[in-house]
Specification:
mainly alpha, MetI-like fold, 14 helices, 2 strands, 3% strand, globular
Length: 288
């Protein structure tokens, strides 16, 4: 049993890391809150004094605000559906004995380690290019006109790119959960005559509920701040301007730090609302 002295020593050793972590989190947050109440335009006069809540009103009353919220939620929701659905299927497939199983698993997981800008460029130029892209050649092979993906199906294109990046992560987590499933339970149900679909629905899927919850929570945190893929592909055009990209435009393109900081506060609020919703609806599985 740890003594009072050892516990105090442990706290002392952890204190520098805790202070550094709090500073790393709190300093940017405090600065964002501070600048959100300021008229601060670095290239157009600098600090022009306090603005009060004017930046918040201007940002939320902008015609681009609610469309950016909608685009953000559509991308997050679409990517979650694809990655969780195909992640379960790939996890089950990769759990089956096959020749070169280790190599196949590495190839499936590899896209997760590709930088977002690189993967977006690959999809933009190699797959979605309406002239020389792979999809264009496939469309012509079947006698159809190529689709201009990044303009005609812009949100779908972003969802496809993001899903390709995050599918390996979901597959890895779900494969690990599938491997922890009791094989004797599946064998017993098979001997009792239960078909494969019922075994999946009543045994495998409930066992994966906690892993699916973790995948949804972690992916949502990162997908709410999607930026690089949009910058590289559509530049925020064709209805793909998310809240994060809108903040970027307000800060860097308009050189309005105060207005962009107010948008950052809205982004924090949105992230917390989504996180609370997920923890209440989906996160109940963590207590099961």
């Amino acid at each position: 049993m740890a003594t009072q002295h050892s516990r105090s020593a442990a706290r002392m050793m952890m204190a520098p890391a805790v202070v550094l972590l709090l500073g790393w989190m709190l300093v940017p947050l405090v600065m964002t809150l501070y600048f959100s109440f300021k008229n601060y335009l670095p290239l157009r006069g600098g600090d022009l004094g306090w603005a009060g809540f004017d930046n918040y009103v201007r940002f939320v009353s902008s015609s681009a605000f609610w469309p950016s919220i909608q685009a953000t939620l559509i991308i997050v929701g679409g990517a979650l559906i694809i990655t969780v659905g195909f992640g379960v299927l790939l996890g089950i497939l990769l759990n089956q004995p096959m020749w070169g199983q280790g190599v196949v698993r590495i190839l499936v997981i590899a896209p997760f380690f590709v930088m977002p800008t690189v993967s977006a460029l690959v999809w933009k130029n190699m797959f979605m290019d309406p002239t020389n892209g792979l999809f264009a050649h496939l469309w012509r092979f079947f006698g159809a006109d190529p689709v201009v993906w990044l303009s005609d199906a812009s949100l779908t294109s972003i969802i496809m790119i993001v899903s390709w990046q995050w599918l390996p992560f979901a597959t890895l987590i779900l494969l690990t959960a599938i491997q922890s499933l009791d094989g004797e339970q599946l064998e017993a149900s098979e001997m009792d005559g239960a078909p494969a679909l019922k075994r999946f629905w009543y045994i495998v899927l409930p066992h994966l509920s906690r892993a699916i919850t973790i995948v949804i929570l972690i992916e949502t945190i990162f997908l709410l701040s999607i930026f690089a893929e949009i910058l590289v592909t559509t530049g925020g055009a064709f209805g793909t301007r998310t809240l994060t990209y809108l903040i970027y435009q307000r800060v860097l393109e308009s050189q309005n730090v105060g207005l962009g900081s107010a948008g950052g506060v809205y982004a924090i609020i949105l992230a917390n609302i989504v996180a609370i919703f997920l923890m209440r609806i989906v996160g109940k599985n963590l207590d099961a």
